[in-house]
Amino acid sequence: MNLDPRTVSVAEYPHWLRAVGTGFLRASAGVPGEEEVALHLARTDLDRVQGVFEAGRCVATFRSFAQELTVVGGAKVPADAITAVTVTPTHRRRGLLGRMMAADLAAAKERGDVVASLIAAEYPIYGRYGFGPATWTTKWEIDVPRAGLDPRRAVPSEADGGRIELVDGADVRKLGPGLHSRVAARQHGMVSRDERWWQRNTGMGVPALETWTEPFYAIYRSPDGEADGLIIYRADDRWGDGKQPLNTATVSGMIAATPAAERALWEFVCSIDWITTVRSGHRAPDDLLPLLLPDPRAARVATRADWLWLRVLDVPRALEARTYAIDSALVLEVRDATGLAGGRFLLEVSPSGASCVPTTRDADITLDLAELGALCLGDGSPVRLAALGRLDEHRAGAAATADLVFRAPRRAWCPDVF
Ligand SMILES: CC(=O)SCCNC(=O)CCNC(=O)[C@H](O)C(C)(C)COP(=O)(O)OP(=O)(O)OC[C@H]1O[C@@H](n2cnc3c(N)ncnc32)[C@H](O)[C@@H]1OP(=O)(O)O
Asked: What share of the chain in percent tops pLDDT 90?
């Protein structure tokens, strides 16, 4: 039986969608109806959809799409975003993912994408294809009565001068994209959101397979009226036996362009009457949140995990696009078994720019491409990798120099799932 991955026709696409549902263990994953298929098709480039078919049934799926990734310093590079990777349980471990990945990465390299990106369902899957965890996520759960915030106080404070407004989904679709681009311009690790993202995340055109309940949306306006922050949250309805409110607010998204907006929005959600627990959603590991509370121990880390994985496709462009804080030079030997991106490179950096070119000089450090993926947004430590035996140092102190070269002032953060 021919099990070659190939692109998918419009007629086959509903069956491909069913296979995605099966792979992601959605119990009701039948062949979706016309309306549902049209919703997906509207945001899908079929040239970048791969499937494997056997006896008319789709048994493997893979899709990629164009994305922009913010690197350290705020520049954006084109990324090949990978999603909907599934192999039906009857066909697993026969190399189907490996073949779909190889075809997609080769096409991305050909197109000129600088990196490939994905959110890994499980840690052990993607390292073998050259991906490394470039950003990490932390979710906090705040015990509001323990946080030390004064419940008698209005939020934001009078001294702040800004205000918070509850808005609806249409306002978010209007204000959100501009705010998001301001935030993404200063936060490495963030990825682009298209119009469909804003529609789906405000309840428009949500596929039937995904359940949707309308959230609350609040924006923070600075004293001069600028929408500087947005928080999206839902609340449950739980009461104790003694008639005490014990409600939880679960934040599904919060972006802020200024520290004032960030403070005001967290204080706001922690000050809503009846709310005794706040779940933060995906934040950067160095988020201001716990330290914004008078008692940071009221914020318990509920989740800490790898998040956005990157696979560098073009080492010089990936390393020249970002900024560096120091003057330095390093020769990196980057191993890539696929031959797509590896080689030996001289990286010369300074606060005013960087150059990365192939070289025949002796290498200072050798590392696999997956480790470079983990380092390129400044979120990993070459010294730790050396201690783990995953980076070879050919000159004493080279790993410590690499630590200083790659370091970024704040941790990388990707708030999105795709
Ligand atoms: C970006 C995203 O969409 S993330 C979502 C990923 N999808 C899922 O987790 C859904 C459930 N799982 C699956 O559908 C499948 O098991 C997949 C897609 C993860 C793997 O597909 P397969 O076709 O079985 O992978 P394939 O046979 O090509 O395996 C290649 C290698 O990866 C390894 N591998 C694959 N999946 C896993 C895993 N979950 N854990 C550990 N190793 C794995 C295989 O053992 C194999 O190793 P080898 O090269 O040393 O022999």
From this structure: 93
Question: How much is the pTM?
Answer: 0.97
Residue nearest to atom 32 of ligand 1 (CA): 125
Q: Is 268 a catalytic residue?
A: no
Specify the pLDDT at position 371: 98
DSSP 362: P
Whether 418 is catalytic: yes
Is 98 annotated as ligand-binding?
yes
Cβ neighbours around 90 below 10 Å, total: 10
Cβ contact 282:183 at 8 Å: no
Find, among 386, 301, 378, the residue nearest to 135 by Cα.
378
| ipTM, two decimals | 0.97
Rounded CA separation 109/115 (Å): 9
CA 316 to centroid of ligand 1, rounded, Å = 30
CATH number, domain 315-406: 3.30.1050.10
For the chain, domain boundaries? 6-113, 138-303, 315-406
Q: Is 30 assigned to a binding site?
A: no
User: How far is Cα 110 from Cα 107, in angstroms, rounded to an integer?
Assistant: 5
Question: Three-state DSSP class for 195?
Answer: helix
Is there a common fold for 6-113 and 315-406? Answer: no
Residues 6 or more apart from 71 whose CB is under 8 A from it?
Answer: 77, 188, 318, 321, 322, 376, 377
CATH classification number, 138-303, choose in 2.40.30.200, 3.20.20.10, 3.30.70.940, 3.40.630.30: 3.40.630.30
